[in-house]
Amino acid sequence: MVYKEFTKQEIIDMDMYYRIQLINSLGGFKSICLIGSKNKEGQTNLGIFNSVFHLGSAPALYGFVCRPANRERHTLENILETKNYTINQVHHTFYKQAHQTSAKYQRETSEFKKVNLNEEYIGDIHAPFVKESKIKFGLELEETHNMMNKNTILIGKVIHVKVEENLLDEKGFIQLDKADTITGSGCDAYYKTNFLERLAYARPENEDA
Amino acid sequence: MVYKEFTKQEIIDMDMYYRIQLINSLGGFKSICLIGSKNKEGQTNLGIFNSVFHLGSAPALYGFVCRPANRERHTLENILETKNYTINQVHHTFYKQAHQTSAKYQRETSEFKKVNLNEEYIGDIHAPFVKESKIKFGLELEETHNMMNKNTILIGKVIHVKVEENLLDEKGFIQLDKADTITGSGCDAYYKTNFLERLAYARPENEDA
Question: Of all helices (H) and strands (E), which one includes residue A82?
């Protein structure tokens, strides 16, 4: 098998667009979620993110990466202002609409209207959920961490969960392929999935993997 | 459609095992990677992680979450000691072996041997790569960030990339389904993927998503 290799210096010297594609492809498949937020004036915002990660279950915590605030970052501004947001899974039926939220709309434009997805409100949670999403949760901002490249990692506590009942098994597991949740790679590639299996808790004695 | 909902208090009061499954399922599909490391004495370690995320491409940075060091965490200890590690994509041919690396082996046991994957060394990079992986990269530790739940986020700079040449297009993009890279959800579910498409850079004027 023929391999292509890039050294530290070649990565630094690489054409910027080539490096963006290459580096974004290296880490495997990505979570694709829509993050809903609303400022104090009631202006809603919806943005697609591919860096949502699970941090813990007790307390229930999720993180995601926000790009530098050197231009308008409506999601980041709204969350810092209200401490409140929603994360909504993206399914095959609306992944193109989800992608379109990445366009640079003006602050006074709601991506919900522009891409034709519906706002949904639950209890006293300030931020909008995506009505079309089958698996979604509300969060309260707990921590922010500043990264060396001026990105910010936001950590939030899960304060509400809403899931289509037929996707949830008796032990709390949700089979995401049944929901037609999509995954992504690079900056702009989308995929469906086929379930392989769930593997048993690994112990040192089961070595015949 | 019938939904199941869980309030903030219900999430706190939930059976621990149910909460682990539920909360782990919420964020969508996950990157599944093997992280290779080696301590100063030459003892290698290989661990499966589902929290690898892209942080930036200039400089080229990746992050991942390490659980609390309240018991032996060989990957974390090795990386803090040597500032050096590798991230290797997991393909359909060896995902069961990758899963088995999550068993609690003793420090003096190398998961490479136990699960029958091969170490590969590139240049002067101290940590082992996974020979069987088609897409892999070496990193230098740049930053650590302590989270409220005692997890640590490690941020590393990409210092070497090795990719099967036939997977890489002329613009730097790698089509991961062609590599049979797998994705995961929850704690233990694995999936193959089917490519849908790459979408064009979104602009406000293309509203017909």
Answer: helix A74-82
What's the predicted TM-score (pTM) here? 0.96
Decide: helix, strand or coil at residue B67: coil
Q: How many helices (H) and strands (E) does chain A have?
A: 5, 13
Tell me the residue range of the domain where A99 lies.
29-188
Residues of chain A short of pLDDT 50, as ranges, are: 209
Q: Dihedral of the CA atoms B72, B75, B80, B81 (nearest 10)?
A: 90
Question: Has residue A172 been placed in a domain?
Answer: yes
The predicted pLDDT at position A68 comes to: 81
A135/B194 CB distance under 8 A: no
In a domain, B113, yes or no: yes
What total number of domains does chain A contain? 1
Alpha-carbon distances, residue B32 vs B12, B35, B47 (angstroms): 28, 10, 10
Query: Which residues on chain A are in Cβ contact (under 8 Å) with B163?
Result: 3-5, 22
Confidence tier at B70 by pLDDT (50, 70, 90) = low
Minimal-distance CA residue of chain B relative to A62: B27
Q: Do residue A33 and residue B52 have CB atoms under 8 angstroms apart?
A: no
Q: Verify whether the Cβ–Cβ distance A181 to B51 is below 8 Å.
A: no
> Which one of B9, B10, B16, B23 makes the best mutation probe of the A interface by having the most chain A beta carbons within 10 Å?
B23
How long a stretch of residues is chain B? Answer: 209
**B107 to chain A nearest CA, in Å?**
12
Assign residue B41 the CATH number of its domain: 2.30.110.10
The interface pTM score, or ipTM, of the predicted complex is 0.96
- Nearest CB among A165, A168, A209 relative to B96 is that of A209
A103, A109, A148 member nearest B155 (Cβ): A148
Q: In this structure, are residues A140 and A157 in contact, taking their beta carbons and an 8 Å threshold?
A: yes
pLDDT of the residue at A70: 58
Strand duo A152-164 + A135-146: pairing? antiparallel
Q: Would you say residue A132 lies in a domain?
A: yes
